[in-house]
Amino acid sequence: MRYVRRIFLRLYKLFTNSKTEAELAREIAAHLALLEDEYLRQGMSPDDARLAARRAYGGVEQAKQLHRNERAFQGLGQILQDTRYTFRQLRKSPGFAVTAILMLALGIGATTAIFSIVEGVLLRPLPFPDPDRVVILGDVLEGSHCASCTHAHVTAPDIRNYMRDTQSFTHLGGYQGADFELSGTGNPVALNATRMSGEVFAALGVAPLMGRVFTQREDEQHQQVAVLSYSMWRSRFHGDATILGSKILLDRKPYTVVGVMPRNFEFPLKPGHVNHSELWVPLSLQPEEFTAGYAASWNFQMVGRLKPGITAEQAQSDAERVARETMRSYPAFMRSLRIHPVVTPLREDTVEQARPLVRTLLLAVIIVLLIACANLAGLLLVRSIRRRREIAVRLALGARAATLLRQAIVESMVLSIAGGGIGLALAAAALRVGVGLLPETLPRVREIGLDWPVMLFALGLGLLTGFLCGLAPAFAAIRTSVNEALKEGGRTGTPGSGHASLRSGLVVAEIAVALVLLTASGLLLRSFQKMRAVNIGFVPDHTLAALYDLPSQQYATQSAIDIFSEDLRRSLQELPGVEAVGITSLLPAAGNGFGIAFTIEGYIPPKGAGLNMAAMSQVLGDPFQALGIRLLRGRGFTESDKAGSQLVAIVNRKMAQRYWPGQDPIGKRLRRGMPETVTPWMTVVGEVDDVKLGPPDAETALQVYQPVTQTVASEGVFATAGELSASNGWIVLRSRVAPEQMENLLRATVQKIDQQLPLYQMQTMEHAISNSEAPRRFNTVLISSFAIAAVLLSVLGIYAVIAFSVALREQEIAVRIALGCQRSGVLVLILGSGVRLAAVGCGLGLLGAAAASRLLRSFLFDVSPFDPGVLALSAVVMLLLALAASALPARRASSTDPMLALRGE
Amino acid sequence: MSSKEKEPIQLLQGTLDLIVLRTLASMGPQHAYQIATRLQQISDRLLNLNQGTLYPALVRLEQYGWIKGTWGRTENNREAKYYEITKAGQKALGEETEKWRRMSALVERLLLEES
């Protein structure tokens, strides 16, 4: 207690210094007087008495210093004094102070905002206890060069086998995203949900907020129970505390709500803002999921918790043993498939794809900050040069170098901490607005925000930048030669040439890094432009799309589904303003396709080529016309391509050129599965243009279309008994009016056929494309805005350096003009010095851009990182800006009055 | 040998606080000069103490809240700052004395056993 009291007092005393000093002096004087009295009383002369009193007392100054050390934190005291001094200095030059603080605020603010993304997405541990032991288990299918399979998946039999036979996990379970129709509480709505094993909750180790989670036993017994997410509980059930035990209808089947998860629980950790799982139901694998086609569908994922002491590698070899067993019991048609299980930490799996983007952003923003720092260092240097005489006088009077050093650093720290504070506020504002604009490819976006680590980061950044920026002027100050500085007297010659090269060095470095960013931004813009120019293979305007999914409870037979589809197609066709209607299982630009293996008649794959994978769309009606996909050869599907008739297919151009190069693909045959699979042949009846199923900058997939009515027949042994087709699909509608105007009409038409059926993800095709372009747009816009900031700052830097050197050389220029130098000559002289700096900086910057090319390459589309056009243009822009920045001081120099040469002395 | 005995001794760390407190407790409010004089009296001039070295101890004790200084007048009508022990100071003095006794007893015992 007494120590606490003392700490406060010692801090407090820092601020009441003059009062305490006066009091101390008074006390000492009183003490000495008493001593003197005593000696006088002993019979000394007054002079002797005074001396004796002093002797007895000891050194007055030493006593005072001891007192000071005891009563207050002296180190702090000096810094406080320096801070006061700095405030006085800054108040005298508010322009400088505001410029410096704002510059730093922008730099630190931007860096903090980006860092908060880095922290939320990459650095923060997953919100599960002991998160490093949570891993993903999945199969890599040999030879399936599947681009969309970045996360390893498993099949339903795999889930059973891995759960039963591995020994490396305390808990292991499978899961799969699922869409449900929620009804019974107001309007039917579409839900993002997850089917998962009871073991998954145990593996993640998160307790529910209310109620309980479901168990593995309930999962195996196919109990219809559901656990709600916090947000769903709040939004759809108004946080009703009595929700536990009540029934909800999912796909028109009753489920009992058994629990509500806490607010921060999220699983799977999907990227983006939408698509988060709103509720969890038991996986309860159906018997058919173990047979035929399902057994060869890698549609599930697995998550587990490693046993203590077991590494991911050990778990992987454990899983490999199980996988070998699984492959031994493969049915005949899967014999040629080879799987390799991989075990990766969940964190890796989650952030892997976001890492390059986030790192690049951080690098870009740090460059901006460095430039701001260099500028501030330059400004401080200029100030310290202006104060050379003052510093020299202080040195001459015995100021210690350490004191000057401390003062310089305190000055820049005061600026940087102020900048850091404002920067933090800017970052908070930017995050408030900006998180909503982050691309859907970024995971864990909900966790982004200003929290303690981020605040500490901003503060640390402020201190660090302050310290670094202070170093240059600090050393310039202590290197001041007293003699020279004082000798120079009123003469203004060209002092401080050593510092001039330091200042030039700073500016050259600034221009170099700014140019690296500028070229990066140029390359990204060029990529964006290239992406916009890509032929996406369909015509997006006037097209509306929406997804439906028929609940199996109501649509239990193929005829029920077919009646619905036919009804839907016909009523949509009859709507006023509709040009074409189609239903397709894969929507272009939505990026939701995965590969299916094909066997091509007469095609002998080169050795080691792996599986022939293609994206397969089942269509109904005329989606080709609705989407504006061009038919290149042959015919589209007609009414007569139905279940019982000859199996037909349409391929895209890429597919035709890959397997039948230089030939007409019409009449060629292909079938599903591997060569050993027994499936019927499908005859190619048409060839259509390549369509981008994902974003325009992604590779075009090999594509096959077939009438949805022929799906089951084409699957041969893959088909499960009683398998239904066409129970879901994307409606695509081409209209003469704006597609937004069709939205209500489409919704009304669907509800006329099925009152309860919700439509998911209704969007215009233009919107779908814009969504698919969003990640690239985000990179481009952000990097470009950093580049603009960097370039502006470095131009400011050039301006400051040139303007200052002109101010210093005023006298010299006046002499030159007086001696007959042309004003244009002066102009060229000054412009030349600016451009020279910029040219050196550009040279270095181009080297830097080359060095950064490796990092950048993965973000570019169809553009080389050494694209000469972009590199040259960036350099020229930089040089022109440098020229413009030096033009102002150059003009001022050229209009110097020659009379100055005479008056100056 | 005798010259060695006469050599002033250094105060142990922390003992000055105790001595000052004790002095104030037994003699009532005192100013710094009186405290210093008193110290020299009881130590038989063996303490090597410049009077100014008292000040840190005084400021420390004051910041602990154990003593309190007020300006007053001496009998010769000189002004002086009188220090007075507080309630907390009385309590602390008891504790510190106890601590010191235990400490010195321990050292004494050790020295006896060693010799």
Give a verbal description of the structure.
- The complex is a heterodimer of chains A (905) and B (115).
- Chain A has 905 residues and is an alpha+beta fold.
- Helices cover 53% and strands 15% of the residues of chain A.
- Chain A is built from 29 helices and 21 strands.
- Chain A has a 6-stranded mixed barrel with strand order 2-3-8-5-7-6.
- With 115 residues, chain B is α+β, with helices and mostly antiparallel strands.
- Chain B has 5 helices and 3 strands.
- In chain B, strands 1-3-2 form a 3-stranded antiparallel beta sheet.
- In chain B, strand 2 and strand 3 form a beta hairpin.
- In chain B, helix 2 (15-27) crosses helix 5.
- Chain B is globular and about 55 Å long.
- The relative contact order of chain B is 0.15.
Output the number of helix runs of chain A.
Answer: 29
Low-confidence parts of chain A lasting 5 or more residues at pLDDT below 50?
Answer: 490-494
Global Rg of chain B: 16 Å
Assign an overall shape of chain A: elongated
SSE-based structural type of chain A: alpha+beta
Largest sheet properties of chain A: 6 strands, mixed, barrel
Task: Give a quick summary of the entry.
Chain A is an alpha+beta fold and 905 residues long. Chain A contains 29 helices and 21 strands. In chain A, helix 7 crosses helix 12 and helix 19 packs across helix 28.
Task: Provide tags for this entry.
heterodimer, A: 905 residues, alpha+beta, six-stranded mixed barrel, six-stranded mixed beta barrel, 29 helices, elongated, B: alpha+beta, three-stranded antiparallel beta sheet, globular, disordered N terminus
